[in-house]
Amino acid sequence: MSQTIAILTGASRGLGASLARGLLAPGTQLVTLARRTDDELAALATEKGVKLEQIAVDLADTAAAAQTAERIFASLPRDAGRYLLINNAGTVHPVANSAALNDPAAIGAAFALNVTSVMLLTSRFLASTQGLTAKRQIVNISSGAGRNPNAGWAVYCSTKAALDMYTRVVNAEHREHGVQAISLAPGVVDTGMQETIRSSSVESFPALARFQDLKASGKLSSPEDVARRILALTERDDFGQTEIDDIRNYA
């Protein structure tokens, strides 16, 4: 029997990679979803005696996301003390002025990854754990961009705003049955996504200089520290009381 069964998306790099390593703890069974597997993570899991399953999948492919969700949760053990789903995978692309957002494939892929895959995985998570007395927690990694507009980020802001509202709906439907869901902004983290943002053109992303300065002045949070704080939050007694939250509210 595992004390915690954790499912984590976007686990191969950045914040997701740090979350995966933080979840390699005694009593935890970890399932990761990412476009590629992580040999170092597998070695660490073996070293620590943690059961790890890595699934290589592109969650922007909605059919693959649905099939993967079905497979994971159809075989989910039902005797754990806690079930934790962390929807971390996401993309900032496409970055462009609203007048230039005319590529339906790029827009659709962003919504598929940032929103649709979250809904598909959460749906199966809710259905497969229904009726259990175990703790059931959902952490949707959102962004301040879903709460404040940023020029050039029409798609990213919209997907994260959708994620915030989806989290609220999940709570409205399932909180009384013991589910705790939060939509959590991680702050500005020193990851590959930030590198992508800094490589944007000022024409597409007018706030470019501010993000370049955050890096140059050392004001970006490390993914290791943010991951540690996120996982600590899931252990708090007041987890879930603030459904639209920001990890910067916690030390």
UniProtKB/TrEMBL annotation:
Its EC number is 1.1.1.-. Keywords: Cytoplasm, NADP, Oxidoreductase. It is found in: Cytoplasm. GO terms for biological process: tetrahydrobiopterin biosynthetic process. Gene3D superfamilies: NAD(P)-binding Rossmann-like Domain. GO terms for cellular component: cytoplasm. Signal peptide: none annotated. The keyword Lipid biosynthesis does not apply. InterPro entries: Biopterin_syn/organic_redct, NAD(P)-bd_dom_sf, SDR_fam. Pfam families: adh_short (PF00106). The keyword NADP applies. SUPFAM superfamilies: NAD(P)-binding Rossmann-fold domains. GO terms for molecular function: sepiapterin reductase (NADP+) activity. This is Benzil reductase. It comes from Pandoraea sputorum.
